[in-house]
Structures are given as C-alpha cells and as structure tokens.
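Please, structure for the following, as tokens.
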Amino acid sequence: MARNNEIPEVNAGSMADIAFLLLIFFLVTTTIQTDAGIDRKLPPEETMPPIPINERNIFRVSLNKNDELFVEGDIMSIEELKTSAIRFLDNGGSPESNTDYCSYCKGERASNSSDSPNKAIIAFNSDREASYGMYVRVQNELTAAYNELRNREAQRLFNRDFVDMEEEYFDVEIPGETKQRLKNEISVIREMFPMKLSEAQTKFNL
C-alpha cells in the first residue's frame, strides 16, 4: 500500500483569533504613562517693556542651581515659604496712606509690604540648573498660599472652601443653574485674591 508523504496542513485560523483577542486585551488593560507637570502660562519670548511697579508690591522668590531658596534676598526654607507669602498677600496696606486699603485683609498693614491683594505680585525666578522637583515644590507652596486665603474668604462668604467650589464647578454632572452660581461665587473670590504669579522680569520703582 503506497504511503501518503504529504504533510497535513495546520488550520491557523483559531490561532489568529486567539492572537487578535490577546491584542485587544492588552490594548484595553494597558495604562499609558503621561508626563506630569504643572499648569502655568509661561511668559512670551518677545515681551513688551516691563510695567513699572512699586517695589513693596513685589514679593521676590528665587531658586538657585543648588536648590537654595531666597525670599526678598534672604535664604529661606521651603517650609516657611507659604506663611511668608500669605503675610505679603494679606498685608492689606495702610488705611491712612493707601486709597486701595483692603478691608477684608487681616495682615500687619506694614508700609513696606503690599498695598492690596490686587496689586500684590509674586515674582518667581528659577535657575535653569535647579531641580524640577524643587521648582514644583516652590510653585505648590505659592499656590497653597493663594488657596488658603481664598478658602478663608469663601468660608466667610459662602460657608465652604474655595477649592471645593472649583472641584464641584468642573463636575460635568452638576445642573446648569448650580454651575452658574458657582461660577459667580468663584469669580468673587478670585477678584478678592487674584493669583498674580509671574516668572517674567519686573522693573521696580525705587
């Protein structure tokens, strides 16, 4: 009896189906890593001439290449930065000599500090060789200073924290009327303590 020397074919259709299912599984379950960062608007490369600003309304923060923090020319620990920034932002000016006197501010009313939250500017300068981690920590502390003051006024006026109001506002499930009310309340608090955090060069009036 003659032998059949032909090699039987293997049906690869089922293997292709399995490979396709595995590909779909990995595409669905794999987490794509994204770069983390901070939400900041960087100054434009070509800027207008700097606007003259009174020096007492500028809170100067700098970070050198060794991650050393300087505030108003003096070295400072990162743990002290938020408190120092709050003291500057909440100074409120002197009621005797300042037409922009801040009635809701609770600061020292020092004549050598900011006139009002609307005029107070935090100027942050970081060396290019400073670590990104320290840069972010400084940004976080400065943002926390604004948020603490905003939370205080939001509690006083609306009996809730400002950060909670913002979180609820961006919730897609809240009704339109609630969103509009939150938008108005958030605008009120932002006008009381506007975030003026600059990384551009500033010209001072002496």
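The chain has one domain: 53-198. Residues 201-206 have pLDDT under 50 and may be disordered.
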